[in-house]
Amino acid sequence: MRSPIHLLRLASAVSAHTLFTTLFVDGENQGDGTCVRMPKDGETATAPIYPLTGDDMACGRDGGSPVPFVCPAPGGSTLTFQFRIWPNAEQPGAIDGGHKGPCSVYIKKVDDMFSDSASGPGWFKIWEDGYEAGSGMWCVDTLIANDGLLSVDLPTGLPAGYYLVRPELIALHQAYRGDPQFYHGCAQVFIPDGPEGRLDIPHEYAVSIPGHVEEDAPGLTFNLYEDEHSTYQIPGPEVYVPESSSSASASAAGGTRKEQRDGKIPDSCLLKNGNWCAKAVPRSSDQKSCWDGVDNCWAQSDVCWDTAPVTGGAGCEVWADYCEILSSACEEGNYEGPAAFEGEEQFAAVPGDIPVPYNTFEGTKVGESNKPATATKAAETDSATAESAPQETSGSSPGEEVVEWEDGTGRLKVSEDGRCGAETGQTCKGSAFGECCSRKGKCGRKTRHCACGCQSGFGECRE
């Protein structure tokens, strides 16, 4: 009787911090470790990444090595990243509550997922969240409240192709001692649809990793215990969100659709564990072919355990059980086979509901400035929104806030997607994204949403 190899490297150290372990695409669990580059050593997997100038700053330890699978993610889809203190989820927890700090998400387009370098130029930031004065919460606090799950929307302006997506946490509890702690990893995704043309990032937003942050940046020397939290500056470049000439999908004119050729999870895959895939055992009709099938099964089992990520080998155990069934059949003289595989992929229990993207920061789009509006611009915006300010009306459905515009052109609904303003006919008042409508038509709670040209006709404003 053979048994799977239990790898010591799957255990997590008691002094663990956190690790990005699992990717969700539009709420669908891709499987622990699937399409995710992560460290191979379980004893140090959750430790912070050093140094700031090292190649590991790109995708973490061992992040320079690609994994076999690339997960498809449609343009504009919601990606959710799960962080765990214990990579194999044997105990709950996302990160220590004292590790307060900001979060960011960077992406990089690559021509070849399996040969292009993760470190180096081509990265840009599509999302960030720091300290929220209103709630007194850091992004890491929000992450903990969401059970280690962080969601962001992919920009719709990304051309079809292969991308590395890099969620980053920075813990500031030791920053005043010159030790800001970085926790990050990379997911491999393929966007099948997107606008025509190249991805040309303006030079002021494009960065190299390492090199995206400076050791003496205010956000990395911040004293969490003495400095005023509301003055915190998130390190790295400003957020940049590519925008296509049309918001329509690739199926419409002006878009493209490509077929993923590399890193696809085979349709013939019977069972998946991380980036390993079980294949059907050959048919058998006599004693020799029966035992050959058993050897084939156990050989696949060895590969499963040898390649199991630090998130564990639950799928390997399922496959080993199947090998035992095949072995028992041969021992009993039942040579016609193999028996049908009836096992299922094992998913660690999701600790909570998949959160909607929070702090949906609009960033900078082509032809726009990310700088705060001038006083004149803010006054013009307030004047314009005041002219079309909506008034509440009766007749709405229970639980739905609906208001009628003064000019009678339509009705406002509470925002369901984080957008607001005249173009969408949605208000932020009462929405889950925040009460304020920014000058760029995004709901939120931060100063950039509630001041600097906030649209008072579509939410609250706090000048």
From TrEMBL:
It catalyses: [(1->4)-beta-D-glucosyl]n+m + reduced acceptor + O2 = 4-dehydro-beta-D-glucosyl-[(1->4)-beta-D-glucosyl]n-1 + [(1->4)-beta-D-glucosyl]m + acceptor + H2O. Its main location: secreted. One of its GO terms (biological process) is cellulose catabolic process. Its cofactor is Cu(2+). CDD domains: ChtBD1_1 (cd11618), LPMO_AA9 (cd21175). Residues 244-253, 373-389 have a biased composition (Low complexity). Residues 1-16 form the signal peptide. Residues 256-265 have a biased composition (Basic and acidic residues). Belongs to the polysaccharide monooxygenase AA9 family. This is lytic cellulose monooxygenase (C4-dehydrogenating). It comes from Hapsidospora chrysogenum (strain ATCC 11550 / CBS 779.69 / DSM 880 / IAM 14645 / JCM 23072 / IMI 49137).
